[in-house]
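Hi there, hope your week has been kind to you so far. Thanks so much in advance, here it is.
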Amino acid sequence: VQLQASGGGLVQAGGSLRLSCAGSGMMFNFNDMGWYRQAPGKQRELVASLTTGGTTNYVDSVKGRFTISRDNAKNTLYLQMNSLKPEDTAVYYCTNVWGRKYWGQGTLVTVSS
């Protein structure tokens, strides 16, 4: 299984980014998938998840600002991030929610104030 997140970068507070995660060896529409992030000095946290049935869940800190989605034909997971805040600065990863996790390289998001 290989999961490659991309789309991170440096953005000013209030800006937007769209992260993508391309996968091989794992069908996203057959797995509950999630976007996780790890900020410096903090534990990795699940910020958004998407079930096989299409139900989404978000951690309170990103509700109303982030949107998780997937393209089954491309086997790609997305995270649209709007109204970014400096506290969103972290390395973002995508992987399955349940069972063994497959951590790819992640993509760095830096939000400047």
